[in-house]
Amino acid sequence: MQLYNSLSHKKEEFIPREEGKVGMYTCGPTVYHYAHIGNLRSYIMEDILEKYLRFSGLDVKRVMNITDVGHLTSDGDTGDDKMLKGAKREHKTVMEIAKFYTDAFFDDCKKLNIKTPDVVVPATTYIDEFIRVISVLMEKGYAYEAGGNIYFDTSKLENYYVFNDFKEEDLAVGVREGVEEDSNKKNKADFVLWFTKSKFDAQELKWESPWGVGYPGWHIECSCISMKNLGEYLDIHCGGIDNAFPHHTNEIAQSEAYLGHKWCNYWFHVLHLNTSSGKMSKSSGEFLTVSLLEEKGYNPLVYRFFCLQSHYRKSLVFDWENLDNAKTAYEKILDKIIPLLAEKEEDINTSEYDRLMKVFCDALDNDLNTAMAVTAVYDVLKSDANSATKLALIKKFDEVLGLDFIANAQKKADTTESDIIPQEILDLAEQRKQAKKDKNFALADEIRNKISELGFNIKDTRQGTEITRK
Ligand code: AMP
Ligand code: ZN
User: Fold this and answer.
1) CA–CA separation, 60 and 50 (whole Å)
2) 430 CA to middle of ligand 1, Å?
3) C-alpha distances out from residue 267 to 260, 270, 316, Å
4) Beta strands 21-26 and 234-240: pairing type?
5) Is 233 exposed, middle or buried (0-12, 13-18, 19+ CB in 10 A)?
6) What is the pTM of this model?
7) Which listed ligand is nearest to 63 at the C-alpha?
8) pLDDT tens digits for 144-171?
9) Which CATH number fits domain 298-418: 1.10.3720.10, 1.20.120.1910, 3.30.420.40, 3.40.50.12780?
10) Does the Cβ of 316 fall within 6 Å of ligand 1?
């Protein structure tokens, strides 16, 4: 498989260090709010990568952290801890916030058919490990204490800016406009491994350490969690492109300083999902979530399909019209699968199977070209292969694509005319929802009665409004 490696800036053959085995690490979510669908684009594409590596016969061990401490509002060392910000916003403790949004994250993943990694580690459970690695960095002379904090000394490295697409002067932490410079740092790019003298006294979670009571920096979390679970050599590390600098750059600096050798061979970065108005962000007001997609009547897998239609190394613009187009295309595929389900048993035509399977694998072998892999689904449906061959291929492709093609086609086939709710009723339900929102309960009741007169029941549940024929 050819995969683009951000470290070498080119497509390379993906060759794991140990034959047949892959160690894969993914930066997990910062659990101070719901994941937005941009975050989830990264997790969807990483999921496809993991599934395709498994599909190709490799034994993958995937590890992910949960960032529940240390990630400040700037990705560098300034601002509040995001977790503390979330806790203040909701008048809860940091741990309550972490639990709630970790669960919400995995609920969203489930709806999007994103597999849970083999090992998931909340950062707060690894404090001793962070302290141990930081102590070694101190002993080796890669870290220093200043003003109470422990910093990594980037001047000790020959090449700190490993993803050298970035210009040093543009990216050095502390030189961006509006970011306060930390006068404790010996070099502008140095970063905090352990905070004690944070100006944010309100930090809720603090631990004893040889350098005083405090808490870890965000970057050390991923290095330690990866090395502890996947060993000294990592095959592939994933994340959204915003993590390349400073987060991944710092992970490499401290891991390699600690280990004394190269750490990770391949870096897989997913480009951002943006809206037409710009970057999506959890901290700026309203943002797009899986629940919002569901509220608007979309099956979350339509969003997964939307993501697969584009290459992970291109930024993607989200708008509702594009999502509608994806929905229509997805439904059309289901419609084409439905007649295949009714066919009698036949033998699979192996030469056709192999030919079409090759189209699919060639697409994914070419730097995970999911858009071409989706085209391979159309190729199957258009081909002269018999129904059994088509179904077998689509079932197999779906092990990677995760779009529940067969199950959803079956569901659609089982949906009889009488289950379909007429548009007139859906419109009335929408008007009732608005009336309730406006606190016009008299109008809401009036609309409910009208819906009832037309032969339908309407019920509000925790999952949303349920309409059934009487
Ligand atoms: P966070 O929860 O902020 O730590 O981010 C979780 C993951 O989402 C990281 O891999 C980020 O790089 C990634 N990410 C953040 N914003 C976006 C976006 N707009 N599109 C795609 N991935 C993103
Ligand atoms: Zn990370």
Assistant:
1) 7
2) 33
3) 19, 10, 20
4) parallel
5) middle
6) 0.87
7) 2
8) 999 889 999 999 998 898 886 555 554 4
9) 1.20.120.1910
10) no
